[in-house]
């Protein structure tokens, strides 16, 4: 096999060095691979070449009219490239001298200084002086192109990376080139803001300081920043990010390319919404309620108080009076320990977290747990993508870019949603769910059509027909609400899925909680199974989860009806809503959750004798607590998180933990020990080993193996290995 | 105001191309015909008719010099300044028109009757120097012929000029 591949490679020589690359590779990329730097501004590996900046000149033997732009020239067999000839160096110097004619020398106050390509290339390739002794051009600066992004037109070198990001990648065409020739500038339509949720990427790919982020302006010098590889904590996509910190504060998140997940991009929420980490209101000491007031206590005091009260309550009311609500944003290790504390140490199955509605821990039809069956990369290989009651642009933004990548490859996008979504403009089909109807009914109408389709093989799935027949009245009422035209469109879409080369159906986890959507997850799963759109490349179905570790929380058994690894419990504990409403619950442990937001008047049950809250800030729930324990954020601890397509990824401590606060796994370990358990974890890696030993979805994983890009682990894959 | 008919013409154009975006330039011409120049409303109408963002349309409208960003005179004079006309002294012709109309090249008379512009080659090299008034050619121009042309246009526009 490697022999064969070798034959396909193109052989060329760059600066006397033999290089082998696949056909179609650009000379610039081939040189890069050989470790030869060719300076460049306009090219970006995720976008098609443009050849605008005239910086990447090389001389290629036998090609007339040298020099050539290496970013637009594909390699050819036997090509001989020179990157350092006199002609090339002169051309580069010329380009740089022109770029610097009008470029202001305000580097001392420029955010980009220190990580600026114009600075670096001038140092390495440029002329040391200029022949231009006239006045530089001046513009009003900076001007906002949105609330988040500011434009300095004097610094802009017109490489068009930002505008091509807007047209090619985010496809919002919000940031464009205005005018032409020497008047050309980056901009928007008059009075119009570039308000894309992806706008922050332009500040990162800008090779100079022309586009800067309002949140980061004048906050730090790049060389003062410490870089730590991390994972964004703000939604379930789990984009890889580089956390840049300066003196115990997060200053910004930058993208850290992972082709399988984020494809090199970050959304604005991921990039900039870390204010809670730096929040001066962060809790720095445990608090115990004394005489109705929360007052400071030592860790020993707080933990021993909780342990004593838990023992008392258990003795008085039994273990079933204890319940726990875990987090969708803490690590797998913490979620695992949380349920282990409740189940093994305290003896209660009343464990849950906030999530959508799924019937049972696993889908009955396939026996698979509720998660997206396809990978994120599969999305770009799909021929049909159906977004039903989901809006990735708002909720899992980077998936929206992956869907657009599929769109560029010709995928048909269908959107079924009551609200307008950003993708409507580019969709093949948009069906607005009318007032009174639901996405759930739309799914039933489609499922009914799939069952009617003669090409669908129902063998072994006859029960679906029986089940759906019971819903006939609901479907008929739904068809009336949708009207004849939309019903026909839904049916046509269902028929399209039957023959589709690869279809992916995605719904939002939280949409399953809306009235009429009770069967949404199961019905879509049934559609995917019956149409054969499952378990093959470019096909799949599943929920888009809300938070960074929503799926991990499920995997770890933060569910009343299943143990870690979706091992169903014969006698389930109380679920999220029951925990909050059942007066039998006397002690409630809350880790990184805010259930007070989900009860009618914001007040948790007055029957609670002990409410313990682990959190970063004094949330609505923490304000009502008997004991509050200060926890640390994702930027201050190690651990693993599981994203929406089941990539298990490592997060690393980027900051010193806030003094006085502890990681949730440390808190849980201390509490378990006070309660008499022999827990001796010294690092989340120890806990991961224990998880890997029991949970088939994590079998064999080790902390070291997670590396920089994580591992996509699925039960099926593990089974195949064995 | 962009009339409903104009918007319909844009939509019809869009449907005639395999990719609707291809209709952006003729649609901008329709918008300009309606209002004399490209207004915010014109941008919006084109963007809606062919499903582009308003920023995208602005980018195209500002790239091409024949889409006007400001209101223009009733008569738009384009004097060619490319090589053949240049050799036949178009500079003098432009200066003469500037004197006669009391505006500089690129400007519009305060009464809104004339805009004077220079243009790259208008393909009338054999009869240089040449100019266009609202797209119509006037060739072999001299200062006298230019005066006569403006007189005729004045008359057409009903302008009384004191000499």
Can you offer a commentary on this structure?
The complex is a heterodimer of chains A (about 725) and B (about 160). With about 725 residues, chain A is α/β, with parallel strands linked by helices. Chain A has four domains: about 1-85, Ubiquitin-like (UB roll) (Roll); about 135-280, 2-Layer Sandwich (Alpha-Beta Plaits); about 285-355 and about 565-720, 3-Layer(aba) Sandwich (Rossmann fold); about 375-545, Dimethylsulfoxide Reductase, domain 2, CATH 3.40.228. Chain A contains 24 helices and 30 strands. Chain A has a seven-stranded mixed sheet with strand order 15-14-27-26-25-16-17. In chain A, strands 2-1-5-3-4 form a five-stranded mixed sheet, with helices on both faces. Chain A has a five-stranded parallel sheet with strand order 20-19-18-21-22, sandwiched between helices. In chain A, strand 28 and strand 29 (about 645-650) form a beta hairpin. With about 160 residues, chain B is α+β, with helices and mostly antiparallel strands. Chain B has two domains: about 5-65, Arc Repressor Mutant, subunit A; about 75-155, Glutaredoxin. Chain B contains seven helices and four strands. Chain B has helices at about 5-15, 25-35, 40-50, 55-65, 85, 90-100, 145-155; strands spanning about 75-80, 115-120, 130-135, 135-140. In chain B, strands 2-1-3-4 form a four-stranded mixed sheet, covered by helices on one side. The longest helix of chain B has 15 residues, at about 145-155. The N and C termini of chain B lie far apart (about 40 Å). The mean pLDDT of chain B is about 95. Chains A and B meet through strand 8 of A and helix 4 of B.
């Amino acid at each position: 096999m490697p022999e064969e591949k070798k034959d396909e490679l193109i052989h060329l020589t760059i600066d006397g060095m033999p290089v082998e690359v696949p056909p179609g590779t650009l000379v610039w990329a081939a040189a890069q691979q050989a470790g030869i730097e060719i300076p460049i501004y306009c090219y970006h590996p995720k976008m098609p070449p443009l050849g605008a900046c005239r910086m990447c000149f090389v001389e290629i033997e036998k090609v007339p009219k040298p020099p050539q732009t290496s970013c637009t020239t594909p390699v050819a067999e036997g090509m001989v490239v020179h990157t350092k000839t006199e002609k090339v160096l002169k051309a580069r110097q010329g380009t740089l001298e022109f770029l610097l004619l009008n470029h202001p020398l305000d580097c001392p106050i420029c955010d980009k200084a220190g990580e600026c390509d114009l600075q670096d290339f001038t140092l390495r390739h440029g002329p040391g002086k200029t022949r231009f002794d006239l006045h530089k051009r001046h513009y009003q600066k900076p001007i906002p192109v949105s609330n988040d992004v500011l434009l300095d037109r004097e610094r802009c070198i017109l490489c068009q990376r930002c505008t091509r990001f807007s047209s090619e990648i985010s496809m919002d065409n919000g940031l464009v080139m205005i005018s032409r020739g020497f008047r050309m500038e980056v901009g928007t339509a008059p009075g119009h803001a570039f308000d894309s949720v992806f706008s922050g990427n332009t500040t990162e790919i800008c090779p100079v300081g022309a586009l800067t982020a309002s949140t980061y302006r004048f906050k730090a010098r790049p060389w003062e920043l410490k870089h730590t590889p991390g994972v964004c904590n703000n939604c379930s996509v789990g984009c890889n990010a580089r956390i840049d910190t300066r003196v115990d504060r997060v200053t910004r998140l930058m993208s850290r390319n992972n082709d399988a997940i984020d494809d090199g991009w970050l959304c604005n929420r991921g990039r900039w919404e870390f204010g809670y980490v730096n929040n001066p209101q962060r809790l720095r000491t445990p608090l115990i309620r004394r005489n109705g007031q929360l007052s400071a206590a030592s860790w020993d005091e707080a933990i021993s108080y909780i342990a004593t009260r838990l023992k008392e309550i258990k003795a008085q009311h039994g273990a079933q009076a204890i319940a726990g609500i875990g987090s969708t944003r803490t690590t797998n290790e913490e979620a695992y320990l949380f349920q282990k504390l409740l189940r093994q140490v305290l003896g209660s199955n009343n464990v849950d977290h906030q999530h959508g509605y799924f019937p049972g821990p696993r889908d009955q039809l396939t026996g698979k747990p509720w998660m997206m069956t396809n990978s994120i990369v599969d999305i770009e290989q799909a021929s049909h993508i159906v977004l039903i009651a989901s809006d990735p642009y708002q909720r899992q933004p980077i998936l929206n870019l992956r869907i657009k990548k599929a769109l560029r490859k010709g995928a048909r996008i269908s959107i079924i949603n009551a609200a307008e979504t950003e993708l409507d403009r580019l969709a093949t089909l948009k069906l607005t769910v009318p007032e009174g109807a639901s996405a759930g009914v739309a799914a039933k109408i489609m499922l009914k059509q799939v069952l009617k389709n003669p090409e669908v093989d129902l063998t072994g799935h006859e029960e679906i027909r029986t089940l759906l027949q019971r819903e006939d009245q609901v479907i008929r009422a739904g068809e009336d609400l949708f009207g004849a035209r939309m019903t026909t469109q839904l049916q046509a879409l269902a028929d399209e899925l039957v023959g589709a080369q690869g279809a992916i159906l995605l719904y939002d986890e939280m949409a399953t909680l809306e009235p009429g959507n009770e069967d949404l997850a199961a019905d879509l799963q049934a559609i995917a199974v019956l149409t054969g759109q499952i378990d093959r490349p470019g096909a799949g179905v599943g929920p888009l989860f809300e938070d960074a570790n929503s799926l991990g929380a499920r995997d770890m058994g933060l569910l009343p009806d299943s143990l870690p690894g979706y091992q169903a419990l014969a006698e389930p504990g109380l679920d999220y809503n029951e925990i909050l409403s059942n007066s039998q619950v006397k002690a409630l442990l809350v880790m990184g959750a805010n259930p007070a937001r989900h009860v009618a008047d914001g007040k948790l049950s007055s029957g609670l004798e002990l409410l313990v809250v682990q959190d970063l800030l004094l949330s609505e729930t923490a304000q009502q607590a008997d004991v509050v324990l200060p926890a640390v954020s994702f930027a201050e601890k190690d651990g693993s998180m599981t994203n929406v397509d089941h990539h298990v990824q490592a997060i690393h401590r980027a900051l010193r933990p806030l003094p006085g606060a502890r990681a949730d796994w440390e808190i849980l370990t201390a509490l378990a020990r006070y309660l008499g358990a022999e827990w001796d974890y010294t690092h989340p890696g120890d806990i991961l080993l224990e998880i890997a030993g029991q949970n088939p979805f994590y079998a064999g994983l080790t902390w070291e193996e997670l590396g920089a890009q994580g591992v996509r682990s699925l039960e099926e894959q593990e089974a195949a290995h064995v | 105001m962009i009339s409903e008919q104009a918007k319909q013409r844009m939509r019809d154009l869009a449907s005639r191309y395999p990719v609707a975006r291809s209709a952006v330039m003729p649609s901008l011409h329709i918008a300009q015909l309606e209002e004399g120049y490209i207004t915010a409303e014109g941008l919006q109408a084109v963007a809606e008719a062919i499903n582009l963002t308003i920023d995208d349309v602005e980018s195209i409208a500002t790239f091409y010099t024949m889409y006007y960003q400001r209101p223009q005179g009733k008569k738009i004079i384009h004097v060619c300044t490319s090589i053949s006309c240049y050799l036949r002294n178009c500079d003098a012709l432009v200066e003469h028109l500037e004197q006669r109309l009391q505006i500089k090249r690129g400007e519009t008379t305060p009464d809104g009757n004339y805009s004077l512009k220079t243009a790259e080659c208008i393909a009338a090299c054999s009869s240089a120097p040449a100019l266009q008034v609202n797209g119509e050619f006037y060739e072999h121009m001299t200062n006298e012929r230019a005066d006569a042309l403006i007189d005729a246009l004045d008359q057409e526009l009903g302008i009384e000029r004191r000499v």
